[in-house]
Design brief:
CATH topology: Rossmann fold
Shape: globular
CATH architecture: 3-Layer(aba) Sandwich
Strand content: 15-25%
Distance between the termini: 4 Å
Number of domains: 1
Largest sheet: 6 strands, parallel
Number of strands: 6
Helix content: 25-40%
Structural class: alpha/beta
Oligomer: single chain
């Protein structure tokens, strides 16, 4: 049975910008849309997160269409939208208070990008006491996420390797990583 709230992190048009480079998992948005449909059908809480970057020229900056949600996950009337300008969906948004007011203890998280806002939100959710499921195939990483290591000794990883590493680090300690199929089948 689907339990808890669904948190859709930063699934926005700004991530279609070429500035991010190649990506893994081109089906992430479709999988997030499947999760959203399942949560709507079950009548469970849904929380949309929008990143509004303070960085000049960011594809996620105010004033352009980059902050708009992608069609697959567009909010419906009555579904709360929380805006943030940092990596965690819990910082400065009221998300935690909203979930506590609903008496939710479980969350399922998906979105963009795996090693940044998705990871930070999952870690913080776990630290705040939520039981976290990460829909790993409803997340993605980009070449812009794949930097050389801190010492400059290792070349940049592929978006797939970055995604895999981020999910692997979260799984077991901060979240339980499951596929969209496994989550939806739990209905």
């Amino acid at each position: 049975m689907i339990a808890g709230a669904l948190i859709l992190v930063d699934i926005q048009k700004g991530f279609d910008s070429p500035v991010w480079g190649a990506r893994n998992n081109p089906g992430a948005e479709a999988n997030a849309g499947r999760l959203l449909a399942a949560w709507r059908e079950a009548g469970k809480p849904i929380c949309h997160i929008r990143h509004v970057s303070p960085e000049p020229g960011s594809p996620l900056g105010p004033g352009g269409d980059g902050t708009e949600f992608k069609a697959e996950v567009a909010p419906r009337d009555g579904e709360p939208v929380f805006e943030k300008n940092v990596n965690s969906a819990f910082i400065g948004t009221g998300l935690g208070e909203h979930l506590h007011a609903l008496d939710e203890t479980r969350v399922t998280i998906c979105g963009l990008t795996t090693p940044h806002c998705v990871s930070t939100t999952a870690r913080m959710a776990a630290n705040l006491g939520f039981h976290v499921t990460l829909a790993h195939d409803a997340c993605a990483a980009f070449a812009a996420n794949a930097r050389t290591d801190w010492a400059g000794d290792v070349p940049a990883l592929s978006p797939e390797a970055v995604h895999h590493a981020a999910v692997s680090i979260l799984h077991g300690e901060f979240a339980r990583a499951l596929s969209t199929d496994m989550i939806v089948a739990a209905k």
